[in-house]
Amino acid sequence: MTATAPPSAVSVLVAHGAMMRGAPDGSIGRAQAAALGTEGLYVADTRLLSRWILEIDRSAFWEVGSVSEPGRRRIAMSPAGRRNQTHDLFVVRTQELDAGGLTETLAIRNLGREPVTAHLVLGAGTDFADQFTVRTDGRTFDLSAAASSLTVIDDGSLTFDYTHTLAGRTFEAGVRVTASIAPSVRREPVAGRFVAATLTWDLPLEAGGEQALTITALATAPLRPKPAAPEPRVPRPGSSGKHVPQGKSAQPKEDSALRRQSLRDLDSLLMPCPLRPDLTIPAAGLPWFLTFFGRDSVLASLLARQDRPDLLPDVLRALAATQGTVHDPARVEQPGKMVHELRVSELAQLGAVPYGRYYGTVDSTPLFLMALGRVDDPQLLRDMEQPARAAVEWMLGDGGLRDTGFLRYTPDPGGLLHQGWKDSHDAVAGRTAANLWVQSPWPRCRGTPGAACGNAPASRPRSGATPPGQGSSGASRTS
User: Fold this and answer.
1) pLDDT (tens digit, 9 = 90+) per residue, 111-159?
2) What's phi and psi for 268, nearest 5 deg?
3) pTM above 0.85, yes or no
4) Contacts of residue 320, Cβ cutoff 8 Å, sequence gap at least 6
5) How far is 51 from 39, CA to CA, in rounded Å?
């Protein structure tokens, strides 16, 4: 399977590591297609829904207004009609994301003077696409052994299930669709990975009356475990001991519109850490970096310390929990080295991409130490002592500091060629603007325990050479 350039989605909802990309009316995909570009409901890099289309009385909807906040939106909708045509039905659609998927509530109102029966139809389907097959980086993957299925349960709920075994490893995913009022369910023929069903309701409405219908689409397999209840926070010396709730600042600041929007944007990226769901971390960015990145997550938590003081301790704990322990060239792992990224999607778990737990970064380790220097919690400092000592030893040893006075890395043909902040395969160019396949580092990284570092080339880069691989997670975190 080869990724092809898709049309852009026009509306994005994101919260707790889940993302929904689709139309302004809250729909996903197209009725006669398995998928439409990058549109979908994604959890843990897996597209759980590639079709989610609502109709009423054989008519699509027009969006007439909406209100959004991080992870939640309310959409006022009217059945589509011809010019000067009026409808008695009006729908307010509320969609909300959590770490497991989507919950939506439909408030269906009869504005007319006579009783009516609203015929509601929902087309739901999924291809369980891994985000690496949706992105436009040109890689191909063998998905011939993958299989999807549909199970309809007596209460009118249904489950879409997916399994793929490759080289002795098995990945499983599933999404369960439930409704507060049982629908009639019609199966659609399975087409490759795509599996779908049509759900229908006939809802009686008195004149001026309203019916509420809640529908959920939630992951069934533990793609990303839900976070445990937070532990009590230990007050820092000299602090009030009060936990700063989301949306509140540790110190009073000018409450500008820019600051409020920036904090809402940051809050929308907060999510459970994939391998430590008890920890909350800021994801690296939309759309394809909704996961833990050592560099991005620690920088964001450092910059947001005054407004979100609880982020930095959790990011440090997440880095310590995933710190390298062995030499593993496939992951670019080395003892004491801090992780670059964590992913739990299909291709990562099956080893088709190396990014399940990937260490191709030169600066996450010094950034960990710099961030630790901003901590004033004695217990956290004690907990981080051994990870900090291992990080320093990596910098002096495998990191190259003792031998050269600089941090260094070796490009990874199967992952990232460039392992500084500019880590896309074409990030480094020569004076002629030709891409450089750098056999050694580019001369910059983020920091050391003394807040200064650099990189020393072990050999000359070759200008215009063809890189052996296109690297990993790609370009800018916002691309």
Assistant:
1) 999 999 999 999 999 999 999 999 866 778 888 899 999 999 988 899 9
2) -65, -20
3) no
4) 368, 383, 384, 387
5) 8
